[in-house]
TrEMBL record, chain A:
Pfam families: BPD_transp_1. Residues 69-258 form the ABC transmembrane type-1 domain. The lineage of its organism: Bacteria, Bacillati, Actinomycetota, Actinomycetes, Kitasatosporales. InterPro entries: MetI-like, MetI-like_sf. Keywords: Cell membrane, Membrane, Transmembrane, Transmembrane helix, Transport. This is Cellobiose ABC transporter membrane protein. It is found in: Cell membrane. It comes from Actinacidiphila alni. It is a multi-pass membrane protein. It comes from the Bacteria. GO terms for cellular component: plasma membrane. The chain crosses the membrane at residues 7-27, 73-95, 104-128, 140-158, 179-202, 237-257. GO terms for biological process: transmembrane transport. CDD domains: TM_PBP2. Coiled coil: none annotated.
Automatic annotation (TrEMBL), chain B:
This is Cellobiose-binding protein. Transmembrane segments: none annotated. The keyword Signal applies. InterPro entries: Bact_solute-bd_prot1, SBP.
From TrEMBL, chain C:
InterPro entries: ABC_transporter_permease (IPR051393), MetI-like (IPR000515), MetI-like_sf (IPR035906). Belongs to the binding-protein-dependent transport system permease family. Its main location: membrane. Residues 96-314 form the ABC transmembrane type-1 domain. Keywords: Cell membrane, Membrane, Transmembrane, Transmembrane helix, Transport. It is found in: Cell membrane. It holds the Pfam family BPD_transp_1. It comes from Actinacidiphila alni. GO terms for biological process: transmembrane transport. It comes from the Bacteria. Residues 1-24 are annotated as: Disordered. This is Cellobiose transport system permease protein.
Amino acid sequence: MRKAGPLVYLTLSGAIVLSAFPLYWLFVIASRSNDVVGDWPPPLLPGSHLFGNVSRLFAAEDANFLKGMANSAIASLAVTVSVVFFSTLAGFAFAKLRFRGKNFLLMIILATMMIPVQMGIIPLYMIMVKLGWEDRLQAVIVPFLVSAFGVFLMRQYAERAVPDELIEAARMDGCHTFRIYWTVVLPALRPGAAVLALFTFMGTWNEFLWPLAVLESDNPTVQFSLNQLSTSYYTDYTLMFSGALVATLPLLAVFAVSGRQIIGGIMEGAVKA
Amino acid sequence: MARHRRGVLAALAAAASLALLAACGGGGGDGGSGSGRTTLVVKTFGQFGYDELYKKYEAAHPGVTVKEENIAKLGDYAPKLQQWMATGRGAGDVVALEEGILTQFKADPGKFVNLLDYGAGSLKGNFLDWKWQQALTTDGKDLIGLGTDVGAQGMCYRTDLFKKAGLPTDRDQVGALWPTWEAYLATGERFTKAGTGAHFFDSSGSIYKNILIQQGDHTYYDTSNKLVMESNPGVKAAWDQTVRMITAGLSGNILSYSPQWNAGFKKGTFATIPCPSWMLGTIEKQAGPENAGKWDVAKVPGAGGVNGGSFLAVPKQSKHQKQAADLVKYLTAAQGQTAAFQAKGNFPSSPQAIDSPAVQGYTAPYFGNAPVGKIFGESVKALKPLYLGPQNNPINDEVTNALIAVEQGKLSPDAAWKKAVGDAKRLVQ
Amino acid sequence: MATHLRPSTAAPPTRDAPAPGAHRPREKLLSRLDRGGSPYLFIAPFFLLFAVFGLYPLGYTAWVSLHDWTISGKGDYVGLANYRQLFGDPDFWNALGNTLGMLVVATVPQLVLALIVASLLNQQLRAMTFLRLGILLPIVTSVAAVGIVFSQIFDRDAGMANGLLGLVGVHPVDWRADKWSSWLAISTMVDWRWTGYNSLIYLAAMQAIPRELYEAAAVDGAGRIRQLRSITVPMIRPAVIFTVISSTIAGMQLFTEPLIFGQGPDAISGGSLRQFQTVSMFMFEKAFRNFDYGYGSAVAWMIFLVIMLLTAINFFIVRRMK
């Protein structure tokens, strides 16, 4: 591996400052009181109101923030596990297996990525009414258990990351296809799958329009709760900032875990080569 | 009306307790299996301030539970409402309708229970005339909803900035500065010349809207729902008046509800703003305790002002229409409206509630003890019934955007007017 | 990790693999069933769930787009009237232009930056974990947070962007008033949010590139940029295709960032003269603000068709480059 020079460190450090600043600033405002909002120059150092703001957050009327966090955690976890499993499975099939109609079916999957999401709300709600799932948590889980995006990503990733010889060798050993997937393909896809897991978790966690449409304020997801913190006419900034900050913490945890997987992949790549 | 309602309540209570008895096999009220209980689901947005009223209603109606499901922002609530109506499920038993949305439903009232069928006809005198008319179809046969609050409007102003500009600060004298919008403009010019560094008002949208509703009995539509925006001189007059204020440099071009608008209350970047009753709480919180007494409330120029307001309606998909209608009558009665005013500052649409000592005697400590109950009451009573057509709100949004474009210097007033008219025509296509 | 799976013909048969010749015909049949059927089995879950939760909404939207619609629900059948009206609607063309414009302004720098960042990260670094995680922080910052922070940054009167411009003597910019300024601000938001995301995809793909290739190239005297162009990009080509296509699709569906940028209850119109209204915002405005769900559905189908067209063009270019 190439050694990095000082210029690389400088560039990356600059990029990190830019990347981290909004998150830092979120923390700054979340720890302040409302009277700094709109000040120039803006406050750049944390204050002492973090605890007060966060306790206001959990007490906020009609927001049910704690429940929203729990609901989102359940939904995001369920969706992530399912999407990673089905996407790696289908992605492997599309990248490495031969079957009739493969290209056509892949095109269909691509096409489903192109459907504008906002329009599906009313027909999807109709389906939920038929299933009796309005205001239930499964309404924000089941429709998202598979993802066209995930299949496509895993297909593109598997093309290069899983050498054909490896699969053929496993076949020679008499492995049936699912076993090949499980013992050969899945481990090889791990870095890509970790990326997909991270994205899927983020996406579900950040989903807003559909939960707002199908759930009610007594059983919300976290973004729904966040949205309940301000009315059309009044925005309590420090409350919203603390909400956004607290809502980001679980993502940081997921990030730390999957980040290690992604970086773990690099070591493997070195060994493989 | 009170006697009548009590009769209905008593009958309902009796029916409900009978049902409860039947369900529980003669047992007491407690330990009921739940099958005898009726849960009425009320869908609201923003803050209606009904929590105490629900408790009282439940106490008076054994067997009835009221559950409110609230969405904080109207913009998020409206698509949900649309989806409940389209699918026939999810609307609960009582829905809150903002006036612009109610207007859209009037063309096709079939989705809601006709409250006249539930004896609401006798309640006409309990609502401001124009509020009652708003929920009544043109043929007078269908009443979609009963009024809750009205956004009774005053003119909020910064006393410290007025003082700096050499203007009076006493709210009666300030009100006397602007009997008309022309006089308001003149005051604004005086204020601007004084060079306080602040603008006279935030942005022109709410000014325009207030001028517009003083112009007669209809605005963009005539009562047969024909678009008359171009031929109605009132609309153009309101537009021209607003444009004169913009060209005189009175507007701060600060988008409503943006962060800089919120901060403006504290920093005093604008000196006046038309303030509906529900905005007082916003101003108090945004300006903060350190600015207590700097904001005050005077009357609006011209005759009266209102911005927004809501109704309660019973969707046909409710399985408890009769009980829901009864709850609507209870919540919108004078006492209910007064209680909501005391809870969240929602100004009543019932003359009895407006004239009640609780409202008339209400003063706002943060605003130099301004008698806002009185000021707002006079403001809404001065208004004449105004007919709004189906696409009233979207059209008004286009006009507001055209005014913003003038403020930004992006369009000349003439081009902006032409654009607004064109947009409106396409909207009703 | 793959060593224990390396085939070894001399190895004794395992439980999973019956001894060669023991049940030849049955084994062959099973193997053929497995080879022929497994691919379909593997992709079946996707298509099953998609049929229920994807296809129905799509078909329903098409059907609805042929109807008049009010806040009360579906009205009369109107044929293609919604589409005819759409083609004559200047607001639609404006929104389409904005969307394509922002797509170019945002996506091109974003993918180039992502490639640079990923290749910088794909080398031996001190504090590697910290640097990698740090650069990817925007991915985990929640949408709400992004919205709040960036509306402060691009505030006209008290925003940091104008504050910094002021330090170098530039007049404050009313970011929302012009096309160029609003597009720039929104593209900044988009790029801030998604550059790390794309570089993560590139980084994951780069790890599959054998190191010897770089070493051989270095021996040949190829510089860093040369290596990036002639080794990295060709080797991660599937990932590049993926990001180009998914960025195009995401760009065509751009919604959250401009909405957040817009502020206020009427943000959906994307500025006083619709300077930054995207097609998704236009669709939402028609369907859920003006309650004309039929018209909104027609817009949705147009967006769908435009994205298909763009993707086809993407594929065409990729084929040509092969």
